[in-house]
Write a structure and sequence with these properties.
binds coenzyme A, alpha+beta, eight-stranded mixed sheet, Aminopeptidase, single chain, 6 helices
Length: 180
């Protein structure tokens, strides 16, 4: 069992996703702009689906997935989420996922959140390797990762199947030795 800690950046509180976030999760993950490149899941169609996501992340028996909500210190509003997936403790690696509401794009918020989250991953979770899967046309996401020193390892061909099509994805990674 691993209790995920709240984290803090200069402009954000990162707090573990909680039951009180169901409305935000529904609003956020039903927004077509947020979902455009999230090809591993369909946009949410109901509040019940949002409740299912929140239940999954707050469920204390699964410690291989976690999600923080990015909360603006300026006004206390949630602006996005980020977290680790598929934490493999034996091999000391995990994947990351992240998404911001469009009104918060282009202001460096996710870079700020990921720096803190990655540092937590490499120290508290003792990770050695962090992976990210990104649709090649998601330029903002690839740039964001490369600014954080992630390296492209290759294309995962036809990796996600979404609404009748297969989609290639870049596999990028950051090692602890390059990320501290
Ligand atoms: C990906 C995402 C988190 C980026 O967050 P952000 O805080 O807006 O990122 P930044 O402002 O630091 O922008 C990252 C870089 O991409 C660039 N960029 C942004 N949009 C771009 C676009 N459409 N085309 C080209 N470059 C773009 C920015 O200029 C910046 O580069 P720079 O620092 O050299 O100027 C945000 O766009 C998002 O949440 N998208 C929807 C969900 C998603 O796709 N998540 C990732 C799935 S892998």
């Amino acid at each position: 069992m691993h209790a995920f800690a709240p984290l803090e950046t200069p402009r954000l509180h990162l707090r573990p996703l909680a039951q009180a976030d169901v409305d935000f999760v529904f609003r956020h993950f039903s927004d077509p702009a947020v979902n455009r490149y999230l090809l591993d899941q369909a946009p949410l169609a109901s509040r019940e689906e949002a409740q299912g996501i929140v239940d999954f992340f707050v469920q204390p028996t699964d410690d291989t997935y976690t999600r923080w909500v990015l909360v603006s210190k300026a006004d206390g509003q949630p602006i996005g989420t980020c977290g680790f997936h598929k934490w493999d403790q034996r091999n000391r690696r995990a994947e990351i996922g992240y998404d911001l509401a469009p009104t918060a794009w282009g202001q460096g918020y996710m870079g700020e959140a990921l720096k803190t989250m990655l540092s937590y991953g490499f120290t508290d979770m003792v990770l050695n390797r962090v992976e990210a899967l990104v649709y090649p046309e998601n330029t903002a996401s690839v740039k964001l990762l490369e600014k954080l020193n992630f390296q492209r390892e290759g294309i995962l061909r036809d990796y996600f199947y979404h609404e009748g099509h297969f989609y290639d994805h870049w596999l990028l990674s950051l090692l602890k030795s390059q990320g501290d």
